[in-house]
Amino acid sequence: MAEKRESSEHQDPRDDAQAHTSVEAQEAEAHSELPDEAEIERHPLEEEVGLLKDALLRTRAEMDNLHKRAEREVEKSRKFAVEGLLKDLVPVIDTLDQGIEAAGESGAEGLVLTRKLLLDTLVRYGLEIVDPLGEAFDPQWHEAMSMLPSEEHASDQVIQVLQRGYRLHDRVVRPARVIVAQ
C-alpha cells in the first residue's frame, strides 16, 4: 500500500493538465448543450407565433368559404324567389286552358290573348312548360297517371299528356301528368 501512495504522489504533471483540460471540455460541452435564457424564452414565442399564423390562415379560409356559401345562397334565393308565385299561378293557367276549350273559337280570342300574355310573363321569370308527348317517361319531370298497352309506341313512351307540367330552372313546379305506353 505504501507503494501505491508513492506512485500517486509522484504522478506526472502532464496527466493532471490533461485531466483538468478534459474536465473543462466537459463543462464547456454541458454549457453549449444548455440554451441560454434568451433562447429558452424565444422558443415558446416562436411556437406561439406559428400557432397564431396557422389559426389566422384557417380563419381566413373559413371566412372565404362562408362568403362563397352566402353568395350561392343569395343566388339560389334570387333564382327561386318566384317559385311560390308560379305554383299558385299554374292553376290559373289550367283554368284559362279549360275556358278556351269550353268557349270554342268564337269567344276564346280574349282568353287566348290573356293566357299568352300570362305565359309570356311567367317565362320571363324562368318558368318552362313541360309537354312531353312522344318523349321517354322520366319520373323526375312526369307523373304517370296510367299505363296503356300500345303496339305503335315504344315501352315507357309518353302517349298522352293529361296535364302539362312546369319547371323553374330545373326544379319541378308541377310534374306533367301523362299516360305511358307499356
TrEMBL record:
Gene3D superfamilies noted in UniProt: 3.90.20.20, Head domain of nucleotide exchange factor GrpE
Cellular location(s): Cytoplasm
One Pfam family, short name: GrpE
Keyword Ribosomal protein on entry: no
GO terms of biological process kind: protein folding
PROSITE patterns with a match to the protein in the record: GRPE
InterPro entries reported for this sequence: GrpE, GrpE_CC, GrpE_head
Domain of life: Bacteria
GO molecular function, one term: protein-folding chaperone binding
Function: Participates actively in the response to hyperosmotic and heat shock by preventing the aggregation of stress-denatured proteins, in association with DnaK and GrpE. It is the nucleotide exchange factor for DnaK and may function as a thermosensor. Unfolded proteins bind initially to DnaJ; upon interaction with the DnaJ-bound protein, DnaK hydrolyzes its bound ATP, resulting in the formation of a stable complex. GrpE releases ADP from DnaK; ATP binding to DnaK triggers the release of the substrate protein, thus completing the reaction cycle.
Protein name: Protein GrpE
Species this protein is from: Wenzhouxiangella marina
